[in-house]
Amino acid sequence: MAKGQLAVFVRARRDALKMTQVQLANATGWSKSAIEKVEAGSLIPSLEFVGALFDALGISYLYRERIIAALYPGALDRIIGPSPAMPDVDALADLEDLPYPAAYLTLPECDILGTNTAWNDAFPGLEAKSNLLTFLFTDPSAPDLLVEWELVAHMYAYMLRILGPISLPESAITEIVDRCKAHPDFERMYAADYPATNAVLSAIRVADPVTGQIRDLRIKVDKPHVPYSPWVTYRLVPPRDGIG
Predict the structure, then answer these.
(1) At a CB cut-off of 8 Å and minimum separation 6, what does 80 contact?
(2) Among 72, 73, 21, which residue's Cα sits nearest to residue 51?
(3) H or E element: which one contains 221?
(4) Phi and psi based region of residue 31 (left: phi greater than 0; alpha: psi -120 to 50; beta: remaining)
(5) Phi/psi at 208 (nearest 5 deg)?
């Protein structure tokens, strides 16, 4: 990964959080000069420094592995071991055992690598080998299925803009963006910062594609580590009795 991509990422994230370089330096425990060098593209930080940047910039553990893999090619495979490119038969069977909608998803590009029956029933057209971002901005059923469609769509568009350049090939980003541009609101959402008050989307309302009945579901995102894998498990879980 080019130093410039890290520089753009750190500057953009810091600006989104309305932090100065001095504040970021204080939060990381490193000098303002070191922050300036990272943002100028003249320094790739050590693992210790990049960990401090992750903490100060509020980068979820879900994305840290992708960024580390881009910053230090081959490091994760050497430390953790090689990862599979796709879920195997056992992983897909585990997903099918879940009684609620669940999928294997890569972030930030939002490729769907596997789904269970409950997911397919809830989101017709969003099956394995499709893309969540493309679905949100090109499938006419998406706003009907997702009550908070604009909030969800903006979150994933912003995620691609901020995290894409640091973890994905430019060609992959361009392909997704070109597809999503078909929607008149995509470019606005892609360019706009995601509101800090909505930084953590923990619940969602989903309308049944047949009856229209709305279900309140809690979003649970897990990162499989045994074995290490490049995808997350995205689960939409009904609230427990007495818990919102």
Answers:
(1) 228
(2) 72
(3) strand 214-222
(4) beta
(5) -65, 130
Topology of domain 3-59, CATH? 434 Repressor (Amino-terminal Domain) (1.10.260)
CA distances from 167 to 73, 151, 175 (A): 11, 23, 15
Per-residue pLDDT tens digits for 125-147:
999 999 999 999 999 999 999 99
Are 146 and 119 contacting, i.e. CB atoms less than 8 angstroms apart? no
Give me 167's structure tokens: 């973890």
Same CATH fold assignment for domains 3-59 and 89-237: no
**Domain at 89-237: CATH code:** 3.30.450.180
pLDDT score, position 72: 82
Please tell me the distance from the alpha carbon of residue 220 to that of residue 215, in angstroms, as a whole number: 15
Helices marked H in 72-220: 75-80, 89-96, 117-122, 132-138, 142-145, 149-167, 170-180, 186-191
Query: 32-56: per-residue pLDDT in tens?
Result: 999 999 999 888 888 899 999 999 9
